[in-house]
Amino acid sequence: MNKPFSQACENNRAPILQVLQPLFESKTCVLEIGSGTGQHAVWFAQNMPSVSWQTSDLKQNHAGIQQWIEAFPAPNLLPPITLDMLANDWPEIVYDGIYSANTAHIMPWDGVVNMVNQGAALLVDGGHFCLYGPMQYNGQLEPQSNRDFDARLRQQASHQGIRDFYKINHLAEKAGLQLQDDHAMPANNRLLIWQKI
Ligand SMILES: C[S@@+](CC[C@H](N)C(=O)[O-])C[C@H]1O[C@@H](n2cnc3c(N)ncnc32)[C@H](O)[C@@H]1O
Questions:
Q1: What is the pLDDT of residue 1?
Q2: Owning domain of residue 142
Q3: What is the CATH number of the domain that holds 132?
Q4: How far apart are the CA of 35 and the centre of ligand 1, in A?
Q5: Starting at the edge strand that comes first in sequence, how are the strands of the sheet with 52-57 ordered?
Q6: pTM, rounded to two decimals
Q7: Is there a domain that residue 1 lies in?
Q8: Strand, coil or helix: 28
Q9: For residue 36, which atom of ligand 1 is closest to its CA?
Q10: Cβ(51) – ligand 1 distance below 6 Å
Q11: Is the CB of 6 under 6 A from ligand 1?
């Protein structure tokens, strides 16, 4: 069976690493929520060898993630754990970093709420929560390509859709996270960085 493959992951992994590396390379253990194919995980683990990279996703994606891990094994790359933002199955350990890409517009809003609240609860003080993906600002979705993407998402499933930055940031602030950066990324994406205070 071929490994699952995302061209977007190939395109965005280097610019994401550029932002994450200075922040994460001094971390011990990072939890990735919604690892998807596993491509980001193998790349970040290779490039930040001192960080234990914990992959996670819904059970149905584990086999694909595992294939990528087997193709690019690294001592700091951990096999996936099942983490469903709509279930109450959070690990009982703490992390000093959390990373999630392209998940907030896919999972239902309740999942986003849990991801931010529970994610913040799992972080040590001073730990960072990094969220990558397209965002809406000031009630406006820009540019047209993001509006088209949002329409396709909502057509696929009514619970999907590009989220509002201010709503996510409001959740984050209530959960004890302080926004440190909001990076503009290629292809009209953002990389939001919060620190637990
Ligand atoms: C578009 S993919 C992004 C995957 C990968 N992070 C990337 O950037 O390519 C969306 C991911 O969100 C995950 N996801 C959807 N609903 C979820 C939920 N309720 N809990 C956890 N992950 C979820 C999917 O399984 C999938 O891996």
A1: 83
A2: 7-196
A3: 3.40.50.150
A4: 6
A5: 77-82, 52-57, 29-33, 95-101, 123-133, 189-196, 177-185
A6: 0.98
A7: no
A8: coil
A9: 27
A10: no
A11: yes
Distance 84 CA to ligand 1 centre (A): 9
The CA distances from residue 28 to 48, 89, 149, in Å, are: 10, 22, 36
User: Alpha-carbon torsion 75, 41, 81, 191, what sign?
Assistant: positive
Distance of CA 9 from the midpoint of ligand 1 (Å): 13
Per residue of the chain (197 residues), give pLDDT as tens.
Answer: 899 999 999 999 999 999 999 999 999 999 999 999 999 999 999 999 999 999 999 999 999 999 999 999 999 999 999 999 999 889 999 999 999 999 999 999 999 999 999 999 999 999 999 999 999 999 999 999 999 999 999 999 999 999 999 999 999 999 999 999 999 999 999 999 999 99
For residue 62, is it within any domain? yes
CA 159 to mean position of chain CA atoms = 18
Nearest CA to ligand 1 atom 27: 36
In a domain, 85, yes or no: yes
CA nearest ligand 1 atom 8, residue: 101
